[in-house]
Amino acid sequence: MRGLFSRYLFKEIAPLYAGGVLLFLFLKMTDIISGTVGAMLSYHTSLLSALTLLSYQLPLVLNICLVVSVPFAVLMAFGRLAKDSEVKAAYAGGVRPLSMLWPLLLPALVVGAAVYFNAAYLTPSGNQKYIKYFYTDIYKLAVPTPTTQNYAHAEGGNFFTAGRIDSLGNGSPKTLSSLTGVVVQTPQGTYSASGGRWDAAAKTWTLFGGYRVDPQGVITALSAPITFAQTDVVARPPPPTDQSTTPQLRAQLATLTPNTEDYRRAAYELSRRVADSFTPLIFVLAAGTLGLALTNRAWAVGAVILFLVTFYALWNTAPQLAAVGALPHLLAAWLPNLVFALFGLLMAWRLR
User: What's its membrane topology (predicted)?
Assistant: First the structure.
């Protein structure tokens, strides 16, 4: 009886899970289409280009759908079984409540493995291609390059600082970069300007306008650009965390200063990818134990909505808490799972 009911339960949940993935995939893609259709129409994007662009977002959307479809399928299945009194019949046949959930653990682990591989490799690659395709094929512009913040370098008795360094695009040589918030300290005085240019080929910094403060403290406005020799080489900044594969993120983390915002964001993203792969398993526990307490399908629909709203609230808030240091990155990444695991354990204790 126990084995037969377990197989019967799995057959009940499997098509609901597949349907849930397709449903949420359709809803998420509709949301993405509505957000980009204006740009596509304005730039006369062809249907093939639009479909290509949307295909690059599929890994990201699919990852979310694979996770949120678990509580949808489990709760809807138990709601239907409760409505037809099949759960009560299983109890009467000697099936213990929690034993019904064991057959669902292995499929949840399989889904979790797919979620991890997708988040670690396919989603970052898709995000990178999406940004590149959007700019080069839709906007007909150069792809914005990552920027270097708070640069500092000492050389030949001079000290160079810049608040921001941007590689120039739109046909400019790759050796040219724009400088923002520039200060150059030399034995002859300190030079400052709001902007400048770094020519990596000529190995020079050029400041446009600005001021010079001599050793006696006299301030003089610069009437013409001034150039300094500067031989440092700045490596291309790493891509954003959502465009970096897991090995790339680990390499970035080793070069970042701990307790900085960039470090916390990268560390959180790494931890989140691992945590998300265990979310299907946690959802089986939480949704399964809640589903066993349902009395009809209407309660199942309400439980699905409650699950998804709570999950999205925690999942979307956690990155900001980690970025500002309000929560350790590991705790922030696992926060949704911890909340639902605690709920599942409390429900399991009631059903024991």
Answer: Multi-pass membrane protein
Supply the DSSP string of 310-343, one letter for each residue: HHHHHHHHHHHHHHTTSS-HHHHHHHHHHHHHHH
| Beta strands in the chain, from DSSP E residues, in sequence order | 148-155, 158-167, 176-186, 189-199, 204-207, 211-213, 219-221, 226-229
| Residues 132 and 159 grouped into a single domain | no
Q: Which amino acid is located at 148 in the chain? A: T
Whether residues 114 and 199 share a domain: the answer is no
* CB 280 within 8 Å of CB 118: no
Contact between residue 194 and residue 180 where contact means Cβ atoms under 8 Å apart: yes
In a domain, 322, yes or no: yes
Taking alpha carbons only, the member of 333, 312, 313 closest to residue 269 is 333
Report residue 71: phi and psi, to 5°.
Answer: -65, -30
Q: Which two tokens stand for residue 206?
A: 């050029």
Give bridge partners of residue 178 from the DSSP assignment.
Answer: 166, 197
Residue from 173, 142, 170, 146 nearest 234 by CA: 146
Residue 211 lies in a domain: yes
In a domain, residue 249? The reply is no
Overall number of domains in the chain: 2
Q: Do 133 and 186 sit in the same domain of this protein?
A: no
Asked whether residue 38 falls in the same domain as residue 109, the answer is yes
- Rounded to whole angstroms, the Cα distance separating 126 from 145 reads 17
Q: What is the pLDDT of residues 64-113, one digit of tens each?
A: 999 999 999 999 998 888 777 777 677 766 677 777 888 889 999 999 99
Residue 134 forms part of a structural domain: yes
User: Contacts by 340-343 with C-beta closer than 8 Å and gap 24+?
Assistant: 340/279, 340/282, 340/283, 340/285, 340/286, 340/310, 340/311, 341/282, 341/285, 341/286, 343/286, 343/290
pLDDT reading at 37 higher than 60? yes
Structure confidence at residue 172 as a pLDDT band (50, 70, 90): very low
Looking at the fold, whether 12 and 111 belong to one and the same domain comes out as: yes
Sign of the four-CA dihedral 108, 113, 118, 119: positive
Nearest CA-CA partner of 296 in 81, 83, 19: 83
Q: Are 15 and 100 in contact (CB under 8 A)?
A: no
Domain that holds residue 155: 148-229
Q: Is the pTM of this model over 0.85?
A: no
